[in-house]
Amino acid sequence: MCLGIPGRITEINRDGGLTMGVVDFGGVKREVCLAYLDDEVDVGDYAIVHVGFAISKVDEDEAKRTFEVLKEMSQLDELEWMEEVAEKSLDPPQADPS
Amino acid sequence: MKYLSEYRDGKIARGLADEIRRTATQQWVLMEVCGGQTHTIVKQGIDELVGEAVEMIHGPGCPVCVTPLEQIDRAMELASRPEVIFSSFGDMLRVPGSDCDLFQIRARGGDVRVVYSPLDALELAKRHPDKQVVFFAVGFETTAPANAMAVWRAKELGVQNFSVLVSHVTVPPAMVALLEAAENRVQGFLAAGHVCTVMGWTEYEPLAQKYRVPIVVTGFEPLDLLEGILMAVKQLEDGRHEVENQYVRSVKREGNRPAQELVEKVFQLVDRQWRGIGRIPGSGLGLRPEFADFDAEVRFGLQNITAEEPEECRAGEVLRGMLKPNECAAFGTRCTPEQPLGAPMVSSEGACAAYYNYGRFRQATRSKA
Amino acid sequence: MSESGSLAQGINCPVPHSKYDRVQLGHGSGGKMSAALVRERFLPLFSNEALAQLGDAAVVDVAADRLAVSTDTFVVQPLEFPGGNIGSLAVHGTLNDVAMMGARPRYLSAGFVLEEGLAIDLLDRIVEAMARAAKEAGVPLIAGDTKVVERGKADGVFINTTGIGELDPEFAPTPECARPGDAVIVSGPIGRHGIAIMAVREGLEFEVEIESDSANLCPLVENLRQRVRGAVHVLRDPTRGGMASALNEIAAAADVGVELEEERLPIPGPVLAACEILGFDPLYVANEGVLVAFVEGSRADEAVAAIRAHRLGEGAAVIGRVVEAHPGIVALKTRIGGTRVVDMLPGDQLPRIC
């Protein structure tokens, strides 16, 4: 139920009875049915594709925002870890924790 | 690959795992519903990474694993007919039926073809007007819009030689069945991100309330799963039980309305048999009467085919998270990936296959230590 | 196919215009049509003394006491694919198998089973590709055979090639020789051949900038032989079943464990993308122009440099090592620090939805 892969829409064809398009998945291109996102998408947008159908448009703003939070969290951990190491060891830490 | 590769960042992953360990004051029991999530967890060693804080139970989220035996047998019956081109997603080919599998039917002369999309099967039907093309329409709610469209288009275009063998199942009733079971140990769920991309998450809100379990809609990459686990653990530590969305880049609360609408036009809720679990009312999708012409069971008169599960296979208990695969007497001996007794040993994200690989490694490293 | 068309195809093609446009049963009967087929379509491209004799068997000299002999039959579909065809594959594949024993390939033979109805110009393209591959490798085709079967019995064409090579007693890598401490080195990016084939299969068509990597690996082996010699314990070309199958076979043969690091695997972007869409694991995808070498740990850097000295080995990298732990099992350390087992698959990988 699950294999949904993000790709960039490079072509949209609304002429036939069914809205179809071409999606580029990091170098692999395939024909995809865009009927379920018809009004929402333009060339250049990213979509999640499952068995040849686009099921959602990737919310790029939300993705960016939440990813930044994740990245910050991991950097914070690096700092805390360095402090722990500093406390435990006899010598002061050599490396710059930034 | 954008929106994929960055969610595999090792450093961020380790950071999340640390945060999970720091947040948990006891070991919690979580279930990820979807087979694709199980695949990532096992493939990336995530359950090993968070093991102290969380016990992950692999849920019945593999449509391959839960397709009832009689449906597999019906597939084989169809595939054996000389006038039929039987098309299917690749997952289904090695699943054992009562007698053999689709691969063996192919070896005996059946025309069995793997397709990537249901629309490919429709194309096959257009290209081979002298044959009957049957498509094995398996899946959860994620795949229903695709299968619905294939049937809808077949009717619109008048493609007479196309039909579908339906074996669709839906997630919420299965979760209810799990939660209602007396032996249930699951304290929180990672809901399937692509099922919810289509359906939204409104159906899960009453479940979270009634059964007092956190439900986090989660994606499929390592960072998605770790973040989802963290969110679930935080809820459990706080004593909350809400529906939260981790997979914000794809899922909205209302889901994909156009997809839901077409599914409703083509399919209706039916009772479905889940292999190894039993009959769950209202847990499946079947074709509406207006589309009966495209129903392979009707067209080929398959209703008389029924099947009995092999007794030794305890897939049901495994799928419900009540038995660990290596606790089954047949595990690794009479039941292996090469000669599986049940579906969870066939499918690469079936719990039994996952244990078969990983468990042997743990045993080997432990004995050398 | 016109004369000028064939002349324009890269090599100086002496093949005359065929009277027939398709292979017929008569071409395999041993009579005039068979002789004409051999004389017109095969001989001009493979010209060498041994073959020209057209005796029942070829007679050749060898300069070694011991020989490595490998045979393989090629049944790939489709017959032509981005980066090659069944002919070039058949030559490269067998040359590589001989080279993986550390032997220097000297001679090739080829047997063809042609399906009645096969287009002659397709046969010409296949044979030309074989000739080109053999010529580039400096290995003559000294014996051949052709049979024709009825329409429907051979999927176009099946080709068997056998290769004979001279063994070097001081350079004899075999799977059993893998030892704890060995570095596991791959000569280039993985997964290209399998994905190039998948992309043109019916039912799965997608557009991808990937070509089969089918190539003659002998120059890489020669570099290793010259610069690192005895420190090379195992050589293997990971064809069907991919890296995973090859490494499992070696681990089992030598009764050692192998540990790979996911971050070090060289996988081209489009291969990764195609694998994502189909639900494939790149470790199980076939390669036809890549080798795996198990080299004594202390000389790993030299070995990598030796491979990189040739353009086919540009992407060479150490991807793991041999360990004492978990003998017979190949384990992968994932990007996020977890570990999983890389097992043999019961059969082929199948595209999945789940």
Protein described:
The complex is a heterotrimer of chains A (98), B (369) and C (354). With 98 residues, chain A is an alpha+beta fold. Helix content of chain A is 30%, strand content 33%. The longest helix of chain A is centred in the C-terminal third of the chain and has 29 residues, at 60-88. By secondary structure, chain B is α/β, with parallel strands linked by helices. In chain B, β10 and β11 form a beta hairpin. The radius of gyration of chain B is 21 Å and the shape is globular. With 354 residues, chain C is α+β, with helices and mostly antiparallel strands. Chain C contains 10 helices and 14 strands. Chain C has helices at residues 3-7, 32-42, 49-52, 86-99, 120-137, 192-199, 218-227, 242-254, 269-278, 300-308, and strands at 67-74, 80-81, 84-85, 104-115, 141-149, 157-166, 183-186, 207-208, 232-236, 257-261, 292-295, 317-323, 330-333, 339-341. The radius of gyration of chain C is 21 Å and the shape is globular. Chains in contact: A-B, A-C, B-C. The interface between A and C is medium-sized, with 13 and 19 residues. β3 of chain A pairs antiparallel with β8 of chain C.
Largest sheet of chain C: 7 strands, mixed
Element-level helix/strand string of chain C? HHHEEEHEHEEEHEHEHEHEHEEE
Largest interface: A-B, 39 and 55 residues
Most strands sheet of chain B? 6 strands, mixed
Distance between the termini of chain C: 47 Å
**Total of DSSP H or I helical runs spanning 4+ residues of chain C:** 10
Q: pLDDT below 50 for ≥5 consecutive residues: which ranges of chain C?
A: 1-10
Termini Cα gap of chain B: 39 Å
Residues in β-strands, percent of chain B: 15-25%
- Structural class of chain C comes to alpha+beta
Summarize the structure.
Chain A has one helix at 60-88, and strands at residues 4-13, 20-25, 28-33, 46-50, 53-57. Chain A has 98 residues and is of the alpha+beta class.
Summary keywords:
heterotrimer, B: 369 residues, alpha/beta, 6-stranded mixed beta sheet, 5-stranded parallel beta sheet, 17 helices, 42% helix, 19% strand, globular, C: 354 residues, alpha+beta, 7-stranded mixed beta sheet, 4-stranded mixed beta sheet, disordered N terminus
Blueprint (SSEs and pairs):
The complex is a heterotrimer of chains A (98), B (369) and C (354).
Chain A: E1 4-13, E2 20-25, E3 28-33, E4 46-50, E5 53-57, H1 60-88
Antiparallel strand pairs in A: 1-2, 1-4, 2-3, 4-5
Chain B: H1 10-23, E1 28-34, H2 35-44, H3 46-49, E2 54-61, H4 63-66, H5 69-80, E3 84-88, H6 102-107, E4 111-114, H7 118-127, E5 132-139, H8 144-157, E6 162-169, H9 171-180, E7 188-192, H10 193-199, H11 205-211, E8 215-218, H12 222-238, E9 243-245, H13 257-266, E10 267-274, E11 278-287, H14 296-299, H15 315-319, H16 343-346, H17 351-368
Parallel strand pairs in B: 1-2, 1-7, 3-4, 3-5, 5-6, 7-8, 8-9
Antiparallel strand pairs in B: 6-11, 10-11
Chain C: H1 3-7, H2 32-42, H3 49-52, E1 67-74, E2 80-81, E3 84-85, H4 86-99, E4 104-115, H5 120-137, E5 141-149, E6 157-166, E7 183-186, H6 192-199, E8 207-208, H7 218-227, E9 232-236, H8 242-254, E10 257-261, H9 269-278, E11 292-295, H10 300-308, E12 317-323, E13 330-333, E14 339-341
Parallel strand pairs in C: 4-5, 10-13
Antiparallel strand pairs in C: 1-6, 2-3, 4-6, 7-11, 7-12, 9-11, 10-12, 13-14
Helix pairs in contact in C: 4-5, 7-10
